[in-house]
Every structure is written in structure tokens, then in C-alpha cells.
Amino acid sequence: MYLLDLAINEAWKYQFLTYPNPAVGASLIVNNKLFVAAHKKAGEPHAEVNVLWKAFRAFHKTPLLQSSSEIHEYLIKNHNNFFNDAVMAVTLEPCSHIGKTPSCANLLKILKPKKVSIGWFDPISSHSGGVEILKNAGIEVKVVNDKRCFDLIEPFIKWNKKRFIFFKLAQTLNGVITGGYISSEASLEWVHQIRDKIDLLVIGGNTVRIDRPTLDTRRINGKNPDILIYSKHKNFDKTIPIFNVPGRKVFIRDNLDLLEKYNFIMVEGGEKLYNEIKNFVDWKVFIISPKINSLENFKSNDDIEVLHVEKRDDLILWGR
What we know:
Blueprint: H1 2-12, E1 25-30, E2 33-38, H2 47-59, H3 68-78, E3 87-90, H4 104-111, E4 115-118, H5 130-136, E5 140-143, H6 147-161, E6 164-172, H7 185-197, E7 200-204, H8 205-211, E8 226-230, E9 250-253, E10 264-268, H9 271-277, E11 283-289, E12 306-311, E13 315-319
Helix pairs in contact: 4-5
């Protein structure tokens, strides 16, 4: 379970950033050394490939390869049974299909580690079958069915079926959400990375009028999501920066019907919007800054199931 714990924790570091792929982590022990890695971005190597390559490079002189296809090919040609005594854990069943990247299950079949523990079966039927591929290759396979691994891929399951919506809220330790930037520079950049992945960002009308935000991805020079301003009152000062970001649409609506047209949606707002929409969203993500502020704190009655907590410069808490 320790190996799977490490893989789960690593995968959470890239939650949402792998859209439209799931967040997946992997860990590996080979030659008495431990390695941990995750899938970082759609189109790039999967978690299994990253951890295998990381381990192989620690013991061998290798070229600097980045694409999944190049790494697969190199490992297949040069593994020389290096992984035969390795023990591995991965949060999601290794993929059997060939898409933008080659099949991880087929790579493992050739590299033949001693044992692979798998946290959860792949929910996409056309991608599944990895377990049987490994078993047929003589690899010891254990499917753990760890709920934490399901939690990791819940956004992926939902945005593939219809949509996934989460509310993001930054606050101090004592629940203050006003008074300018609250979270750290690293957290602000992380939010911009997430905005680069989402299809739609929902914001309340009062927040737009008071904060006069931009809500773009300037910190990473990314893609700017479409904006839905949820407001009963349609009049806004169009010099507010949110209206002047090129390459995106800004909608002003008094309903949430527009959400039906998008797959991956983030809601940013204050107390009023949170309390209105908290039972409608799939997840809540709290960025908790290690500060105490004398301003009035955020108020809500809400029971939250904690999915994961990560310590960065701020605390990141994912819940539903």
C-alpha cells in the first residue's frame, strides 16, 4: 500500500492539469531504489512511462528523450531485463489502446516487472484490458480497488460523460475571502494553469463589479477560457478588464443553462455565489493561505467530504 500511497499523492499534484486525460500516478522499486512519477499533461508520457524512464535513466546513460513513442521504443530495445525484479504500483489500469501515446500495458508486457499493483480499473471500456495483458505476460497483478484512486479519476469520468464543475475558493486560515490577493504566488500561477485547461469560468456579477478582475492566464501565457457572468443585473462597466481579453467569449446570464454546452467548468466567486451553487457543483477546491485576517470571514453551512489535502505554500483541499 505504501507504493500506492506515493503514486496517489503524486497524481494529485497534477489534478485538473491533465485534462482531458485523468490524473494518474505511478511508483516503482527497482535495484532497491524508489521512484515516483505522474502523468503531467495530455499527449505527454503516461505515469507508467515516466516512472519507468526515470528509473532506467538513474542506472543507465541514455539520450534525452521526451515523447512517449521515443521512450517506449528505447526501453523496448534496451531494457535487457532490467525491470524483471521491479515492483510497481499505478493508480489506474495501464491502457491497452494506442492513441496519442502507445499502450502502457503492451510496454509493461515486454519489460516484465515482477509485480504490478493497480488502484482502479480503467472506466473507459475501449481503454481497458490492461490487467489481462499483464497477467497473460506472466506478471503478478493485484487490483486494489482503492476508493482514493476512483476519487482521482472522478473528474475524468464526469467530463467524458457530460461535464465536471468545481468551485474554487481562496481563503485565509480564519475564513476571510476578501481584501485583495489571498493565496501565494505559486497558487496564483497554479490557478492560471487550471484556467488554461477549463472550457468555461463562471463568476458572480457582484465579484466582477467590486474586484474588476481580468480572469485570464497571463501568468503562463495560456488559453483564456470563456466567461459566464452569472447576474440578475445585466449592466456592467465594459472597461472592466474581464471584457477586454481577446480570443474568448463573455456571456452575461441570469441562469446557468449555458453550462450544458461545456465539459470542464470552474466557478470562482464569493460567499453569495458559493451558497447559491454549492449543491450544484461536483467538487469544491479550497486554497487555504496560512494567514489570519481581521476582516469579516466567509459564512456558509456546508458538509464537505475531504478527498485530498496537499501542503504547498498554501494548503490545497479538494472536497465534494
